Hints:
By secondary structure, the chain is of the alpha+beta class. It has 4 helices and 11 strands; from the N terminus they run αββββαββββαββαβ. The strands form 2 sheets. Strands 1, 2, 3, 4, 5, 6, 7 and 8 form an 8-stranded mixed beta sheet that branches. Strands 10-9-11 form a 3-stranded mixed beta sheet.
Amino acid sequence: MTYQATDDHPRWWGSLMDAAQQADRPQVPRVASDRLRLHSPGRARTASVLVLLTDAGDDSDTNAGAPAGSGGPRVLLQQRGATLRHHPGEVAFPGGAADPGDADAAATALREAAEELAVDPASVDIGITLPPLWIPVSGFAVTPVLAWWREPHPVSPAPGEEVAAAHLVALTDLADPANRGSTLYPSGRTGPGFSVPGVPLIWGFTAGILSWLLELGGWSRPWDTGRMMELEGL
Length: 234
């Protein structure tokens, strides 16, 4: 997808989209598990996630628990319910499996964000749709959709047990070396991790995409890759 920047977007957003159009796809960790049957890419189910970025100024803009005083670009994340069968309590992007009525990957991501966090699709400008990334442990081919939150508004988890909380996290906090480390999976593989105050440990697919974004946008800072962050419940 070719993206055309407009004067309504900040300069960093246009630069990020230009870089995303030319960059290799993100490298996300693949976590092996004996509890889940692995699938081949050709049989993968399709899903999309909304990587929603904004320049929201303070906590009151979204009621999403952003750390006070953290300026610059932010990303909207959600915390999955603690009672869910798969990935309980994990931090993730809004998103989910495609429905037959969805026109494309962006439509899936927007619908899921509306259902999970009450994000108004009319407040979002779609940027770049990345190639699908295969997640063997779940059998999904997940398409990340980069988007600009043009008109941030209050969000909250939909009633039920699927989503426990929303978090609006500053990219500067993610890039802070004090908040970064590596996670070790039972398979022996390692991947990036983020420990931001007020937010559960961010790891796996979500951390892989965020790490890629930080590098792509020029926000990344040198950090200790040997610092290990413990995963609970694996």
